[in-house]
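Moderator note: this is an archived Q&A kept for reference. The question asked for a predicted structure of one protein chain; the sequence and the answer are reproduced below.
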Amino acid sequence: SIYFHFEEFIRIRTNDVAYGKGILSWYKLALKHLRNFRPDITFGEIDETFYSEFVTYLIKTKDMSNNTVGGHIKALKAFMKWAFDKNLTSNIKFLKFKNLSNDADTVCLNEKELSLLENIDLTVNPKLIDVRNMFLIEIYTGLRVSDLLSLTKENFDMENKIIRINIQKTRETLQIPIHTRLAAILEQYSELKFPHFSKPYFNKQLKELCKQAGITELTQTIKYQGTQRLIETKPKYELISSHTARRSFITLLIKKGAKAEMIMKITGHKKLTTMQKYVRITENEALEAVRDAWD
């Protein structure tokens, strides 16, 4: 069975600072779904037939989108490569496995919605104040939530109004400006100690916050399961999560005329094509931009 070795693979990478909580979660979930799909399997059985059946199981039985399936296949391939490098197997058929993916149909906040969050009165629901503040700090800095929660007082150069941080994903040191709107929130936290939330709790409370703020516009999303194209319409607050902040940071700056190369210096993106995946421009916004350019 491969599962003993898969657990060893996860333990080793858990103790490696190069791997953050996000990728470790993918490894653990991939192992869980593999076990549910086939309680016992050997390295030699990881072939094209297995791949086809496993993908079908994830889509049909577990109702996953192509992007989620692709994440699990990517995790499986990382494990198989590790096992091959450790001489645990000579099977390289996993190299032909495709990482299913489609452009994610996700949302970001516009200026009006950002203003709603900034100005919402939370007197009657004070537990949402920290949730709102943490989300706004994400939007103002473009940081991933994992990097935001790693900040300590030493990361803040208040004299020069700069945050310096070594981000987890690429180990690169970034410098982020502390502008007026960000400074106003930082002043609310003595010693710059921020509250920590679990990701599920934060995302649940964030949806409630956005609902109370009035971010309720019906929004259509598209996801793919195999070749099937599924369209859903939901209130926008149901589609918002912590990662919405990073998309909002990039999209709002693009709309304000900031150059992509300058935004990449703040976000830590190495490739323009990667950063562009975060940009969310609506059809109406594109129409208005073209009209304004020619009128």
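Archived answer notes: Residues 66-85 form the longest helix (20 residues).
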